[in-house]
């Protein structure tokens, strides 16, 4: 996977003598000690990470942890004190002002919490503003602006003034303005935080929808766990200027690196974030692979099921793909009609579930029809099974483990 952003040993010290602060950091002094002794603030301390092309990378952390400083270092709205920032292979820290301005206009867009629309310009002209600054002629920029306004569902509002729009709609214009220049990289700092929860979820959905249509690289700052987990492919958690953990939502959830990270999950309903592949197990259900085992036939499968006191088995091909489910009854019927092959005994009503199905939906399925559910990946590969017992155990575990 290609890396869009690479950050190495990045530091930012706010204050008159950053070199002194850097020396103090080197000799092991903390952010607090440096502040107490010199009044200088270590905004970001030794950040190292990369962001893949097409990825939504979320920076999460408490207020003052350095999220805004870090995202602004990426386009040098904040000047780095030390370290390296590569965007698309170009060293941002070493760029001339002119090259930087060019990059910001053409290939990097930033969306802030305050939408900062120009009050005297129409929605259309606000959207086209970045293009105008970049010198695009009127006709082309208005055509493009109209296109993105349609994308964010504001086509009919193009000729209104910003003040005639609700907060949620204004934020859509902010997003449209960023999209208009067709940037490969979007930097979004608490872009949806000023919106009420419903509007906020709507914007998250819109962002994911747009991302589905055209993949951009997005760095997204949020202090909200729900938001981070919903939209983030990977999340970096910041504390006191440092990145304390980077991982997929799933990795962070399962293995929080310390108490600070764990504290984010206090009072959070972890079940909400679990999906089929997190709970699927391979040791609860009998799996038979007919192509690998020449003796796999109905009579033997029935025997195995009876020995292990089970009623169902999954049939999986040599390529790892799920072929279907057989039950003792279906196999007995096959035997009665003179058949032996498992392929003749496959049930037709046991649908596989995708690995991304939520726990809530899984519970819905199992309540309706309490058969073991085979979980498959997007290519149809068998990953494991979810059973009633597994779901119950998981729920009890979560209740007692996350109080
Ligand atoms: N221009 C500045 N001058 C001095 N200190 C600054 C400046 N900008 C930020 N800081 C300090 O750097 C630290 C990190 O601030 P930053 O704004 O990056 O945090 P944040 O994680 O974005 O917080 P929030 O969630 O409140 O937006 C804070 O201690 C802040 O006071
Ligand atoms: Mg901030």
Keywords:
alpha/beta; Rossmann fold; CBS-domain; 3 domains; four-stranded antiparallel β-sheet; binds magnesium ion
Count of helical segments?
A: 17
CATH level-two architecture of the largest domain? 3-Layer(aba) Sandwich
The CATH H-level superfamily of the largest domain is P-loop containing nucleotide triphosphate hydrolases
Average of the residue pLDDT scores: 89
CATH class of the largest domain: Alpha Beta
CA-atom Rg in angstroms: 27 Å
> Residue share in helices?
25-40%
> Ligands bound here?
adenosine-5'-triphosphate, magnesium ion
Structure notes:
It contains 17 helices and 16 strands. It is 39% helix and 22% strand. The strands form four sheets. It has a six-stranded mixed sheet with strand order 6-7-8-3-9-10, sandwiched between helices. A four-stranded antiparallel sheet has the order 2-1-4-5, sandwiched between helices. Strand 14 (353-354), helix 16 (359-368) and strand 15 form a beta-alpha-beta unit. Helix 14 (298-307) packs antiparallel against helix 15. It is of the alpha/beta class and 403 residues long. The chain folds into three domains: 3-107 and 183-268, 3-Layer(aba) Sandwich (Rossmann fold), CATH 3.40.50; 122-182; 277-400, Roll (CBS-domain). It binds adenosine-5'-triphosphate and magnesium ion. The site of adenosine-5'-triphosphate has 12 residues, from strand 2 and helix 3.
Short note summarizing the structure:
This protein has 403 residues and is an alpha/beta fold. It folds into 3 domains: 3-107 and 183-268, Rossmann fold (3-Layer(aba) Sandwich), CATH 3.40.50.300; 122-182; 277-400, CBS-domain. It has helices at residues 18-26, 31-38, 67-74, 97-106, 123-127, 129-133, 138-151, 167-180, 197-213, 225-231, 249-254, 259-264, 276-279, 298-307, 328-336, 359-368, 388-401, and strands at residues 3-14, 41-52, 56-61, 82-87, 90-91, 108-111, 185-189, 217-222, 234-239, 242-247, 286-288, 312-316, 322-327, 353-354, 373-376, 382-386.
């Amino acid at each position: 996977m290609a890396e869009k952003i690479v950050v190495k040993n990045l530091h930012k010290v706010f204050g008159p003598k950053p070199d002194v602060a850097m020396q103090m950091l080197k000799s092991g002094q903390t952010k607090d000690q440096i502040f107490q002794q010199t009044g200088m603030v270590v905004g970001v301390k030794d950040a190292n990470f990369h962001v893949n092309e097409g990825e939504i990378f979320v920076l999460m952390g408490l207020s003052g942890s350095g999220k805004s400083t870090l995202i602004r270092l990426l386009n040098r709205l904040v000047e780095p004190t030390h370290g390296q920032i590569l965007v698309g292979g170009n060293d941002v820290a070493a760029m001339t002002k002119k090259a930087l301005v060019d990059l910001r206009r053409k290939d990097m867009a930033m969306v802030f919490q305050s939408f900062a629309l120009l009050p005297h310009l129409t929605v259309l002209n606000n959207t086209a503003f970045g293009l105008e600054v970049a010198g695009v002629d009127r006709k082309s920029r208005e055509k493009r602006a109209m296109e993105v306004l349609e994308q964010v569902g504001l086509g009919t509002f193009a000729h209104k003034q910003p003040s005639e729009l609700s907060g949620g709609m204004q934020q859509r214009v902010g997003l449209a303005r960023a999209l208009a220049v067709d940037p490969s990289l979007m930097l979004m700092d608490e872009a949806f935080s000023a919106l009420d929860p419903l509007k906020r979820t709507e914007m998250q959905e819109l962002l994911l929808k747009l991302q589905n249509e055209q993949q951009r690289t997005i760095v997204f700052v949020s202090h909200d766990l729900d938001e981070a987990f919903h939209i983030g492919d990977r999340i970096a958690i910041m504390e006191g200027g440092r990145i304390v953990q980077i991982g997929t939502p799933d990795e962070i959830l399962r293995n929080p690196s310390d108490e600070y990270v764990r504290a984010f999950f206090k009072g959070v309903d972890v079940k909400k974030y679990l999906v089929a592949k997190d709970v699927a197990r391979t040791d609860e259900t009998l799996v038979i692979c007919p192509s690998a085992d020449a003796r796999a036939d109905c009579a033997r499968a029935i025997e195995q099921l009876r020995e292990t006191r089970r009623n169902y088995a999954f049939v999986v091909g040599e390529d790892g793909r799920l072929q279907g489910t057989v039950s003792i009854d279906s196999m007995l019927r096959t035997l009665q009609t003179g058949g032996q092959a498992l392929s003749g005994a496959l049930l037709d009503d046991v649908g596989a579930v995708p690995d991304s199905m939520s726990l809530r939906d899984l519970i819905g399925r199992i309540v309706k029809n309490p058969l073991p559910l085979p979980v498959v990946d997007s290519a149809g590969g068998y990953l494991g099974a979810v059973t009633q017992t597994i779901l119950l155990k998981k729920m009890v575990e979560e209740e007692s483990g996350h109080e």
